[in-house]
Amino acid sequence: MSILKPLLFFSKRYLFSKSDNNAINIIVYIASLGVFFASAAFIIVLSGFSGIRTFNLNLLKLTDPDLVIRPEKGKFFKFNDDLNTILNEEKEIKSFSKTLEEKVFIDFRHKQKIGQLKGIDSNFYKVIPLDTTVFLGDIPRPDSNEVLVGVGMANELSLILSSGERPEVIKIMVPKPGKKLISNPRKAFLSKYFFPVGVYQTSSDHDKIYLYAPIEQTRQLLKLPPGMVSQIEIKASNAENIPLLKERLQKKLPAYKVLNRQELNPLIFKMLNTENLMTYFILLLILILAIFNIIGSLIMIIIDKKENIQTLKVLGMDLDDIKKIFLIQGVSMTMISGIAGLIFGLLLIFLQLHFPFLYIPQTSLAYPVEIHLSNIMAVLLTLFILGFLSAYIASKRIK
Q: Label partner for 270 (CA 20 to 30 A): which of 57, 163, 222, 286?
């Protein structure tokens, strides 16, 4: 403890005192500014990616449920009383919906497209709030021949919505089940006409593929018996208890697969995690380049203080203690500049959150950002480690 006070005293003195050589002062200022802006960029970009991640996950909530129950084998299964009892007895289930899904061929006024038809029951909008994304027309009425179409699909088909004054129809076709050789292509498909009554908008990938119709009409198209479904979609009462709910349902339903939202979209989650990791390493590289300036400035300071170092040696200070002086100075220089940059970056993020000045191109949506303690701690820890390494490298020049 007795040697610590002198070390802190000399480190503080060398840190805040100007050199007689103006060039060294300029080098120190430039190095500090480099760390300042690198640190600010670090927290801004990490916060931006956190905002984008949440934005994408919120989009998934508009198209995918908390949990899905699917058959272990095959595409369809019968929803029976046993399944209904198990789901109704589970207190953590807020609501559930039976859906029927199949790839279809769509024809509207001689424009064709392959899509995914999803038959939905009356509980569907309690599980997934897709009705909140309808910006044109309305949702299909139960047991009607009406269909809800994504904006991407509507644009590709040049779709016109059906109305009482001007009815419009979409022809939806699916291949007939069976393995027999098809001799007449016209008889190879099951078909049904639907009235397009609404257009929804979620994400571009989903909007171009999915259209929604009442489940009974979808069963009629697919020639399936009553009660047949593709999956059961579940809305949990508490998002924090989804893992436990999934585990309980899987034990009760061993013949089925219980999947969460991440398992339904593995590629999206892998992409988000990979992008976040790659962004961190790119920013780390930028910060490392900025830290190199700190090493250079510390070496220049050491050279400038050569006479002072000799004086300290004469006064009986060990070489290791002298190195510690410049080690503390280097870490302090990095942390002060870095924390200042961090505060500046957080201030810009705060302004974006409350007084947006950046918007997603071609939209009126503010660019999403989020402040997370984990991002702040990641920046501080990275600054400390790099600051320590740079100061350690520079202090090794003292002999």
A: 286
Q: Element (H or E) spanning 242, and its range?
A: helix 242-252
Cross-strand bridge partners of residue 213: 119
Separation CA 322–CA 397 (nearest Å): 11
pLDDT digits (tens, 9 = 90+) for 152-170: 999 999 999 998 788 999 9
- The model's pTM: 0.78
Does residue 120 sit in helix, strand or coil?
strand
∠ CA 362-139-170 to the nearest 5 degrees? Answer: 85
CA–CA distance, 291 with 386 (Å, rounded to integer):
7
Q: Render 32-88 in DSSP notation, one character per residue.
A: HHHHHHHHHHHHHHHHHHHHHHHHHHHHHHTTS-SEEEEESSSS-EE--HHHHHHHH
CB of 205 within 8 A of CB of 271? no
**Nearest CA-CA partner of 107 in 145, 151, 56, 153:** 153
Place of tokens 């949702």: 139
Alpha-carbon distance of 385 to 367, in angstroms, equals 31
298 residue type, one letter: L
Residue range 343-384, pLDDT digits in tens? 999 999 999 999 999 887 776 788 899 999 999 999 999 999
Find out whether 155 and 113 touch, Cβ atoms under 8 Å: no
Which residue ranges make up each domain of the chain? 4-60+269-395, 66-260
Q: By three-state DSSP, how is residue 6 classified?
A: helix
Give the bridge partners for 120, in sequence order: 99, 214
